[in-house]
Design goal:
Length: about 130
Amino acid sequence: MESGNTKKNAKDYKGAIADFTQAIQLSGKSAKAYFYRANTYSEMQDYPAAIKDFTTSIGLDPSAANVDAYAYRGSANSANKNYEDAVADYTKAIELSRLPNPYTYHYRADAKSNLKDYTGAIDDFTRAI
């Protein structure tokens, strides 16, 4: 997976996807490999593929140790205009986080605003502040 992250950081997204896919094939049950590949798909703006891999990562490890998968899937859902799913993902990330993350509240507020839940958005923006 280190090679995949190196390639991703160098913006060699196709090479990174190939490396993460190989890691998945070798391990089969690596939540991290799916998470890293999902991040790469997000960088490529292939949000449906990212959402699918984040979902697999969460299925393999739904614990607080994988809290970023919920938040990042929320971002992919927002980018894909799946605002209700984004709110659910951000809410789960908030529930699992040991420490409140103001960015997660901010992103959830954005998704709520897109759903015209302005009261909820204001509440989340206030928490983010």
